[in-house]
Here is the input.
Amino acid sequence: MLGWNLPPNFENGFTDCYNASIYTTVFNYAKQYPYLFGCHFGFHYDPIDGQRKLENRFQAGGLADDRDDMLCRITGLRTMEQEAQSIEELLDRAHSQVREGHPVTIKVDAYDCPWNIAYQKTHFEHYLCFLGKDEEGDLWGHDAFCGVNRVKLPDLDHLHISKQYLTYRYNPDDITIRNPLLILREAMHYYIQKKCANAIFDFAQELLDNRTLYEELKDSGVLCINAFFIKLKGIVSNRLNFRYFLMESSLPDTSHLVSSFQAACICWYEAYRVFNKYMFRKGNVMCLSAACNKMKEAALIEERCAADYLQVKRSPKIKGR
Amino acid sequence: MENEFQIKSKIMEIIRLNQNLAEDQEISDLTPLVDIISNSVEFIQIIVDIEDEFAIEFKNDELNFQFFPYIQDLVSKTISKIDHTGK
Here is the structure.
């Protein structure tokens, strides 16, 4: 148990700490780890709708929309949400799970975690994956979202912790998808059928037309733990991890696809960084415009990748842009 | 025109202020940026401050601290941009 490691692609970043915890478990405990990232290629956006904030109207999308089902069919891993009556009971159960060789995910407050950027600054839900016990009998695990190996649960006296936790069971007989080509084809179908490129264009256009993003976000605290930026970074990370899937799944004849998709990853990452600069430049329109245009460029590349792979015609809406 | 030493000193000062480095924490030309900057957001804040200090502009595709392994790389890029503007 002490030999468990951080997933190899943690430096790409993960969508969020909850998923990072699941990925850590799959990598150390289940099968077909790289295939999982074929499910994270998409984009979903809802146009302006009443009072819903922008950060609640866009999301990563992809075959992992039905996350638990895809997780089980690809890796054989099932997640089970649990709730204890007290913190003491939760810790007892966590120790018991780990003793039996099963990982446990616990929700803590990032405010209490010394390795986290929110430490003693901001209260923020944060999931940690515990995998074993150290020589002193304390739970230890990984925080793949922060890229930190071997973390301990913070001191109980100062701990803000949820009574809900997550356990896992692995059964290889539950794996029904063993061919990465099938995942790739379904991922590309998803992108075309759900019109993800159009959604990216519309999202970027709303940002450009309204020009209110800075005003909406300027008082929301530390930028990188702001909900909009976390979501955007998650989408960038998904692209990098989709490329990881393309490269690590022994897919035949995909070298051209990998190099094309790499260009989309670069566009997404640049868009994310320029959005950050836009905030530091207090809503500079040039920065906003550059970031939105990079997202549109990424969308065009991605749609071309999917359409070329499936050998289908591109949608008329995008074709004319 | 500011000389290289002055430019380097100002960049060091910007990094120190942004990263809230302790007075006794030594940094030099050869300090890897990854040792003192933990994410791209921190890096972009430093770039924006450098832009303001020297009235220069980094290109959008340069906003990546992987392109600047050491502080010296950031100093050199800043100097080349100042030279280019003719300040």
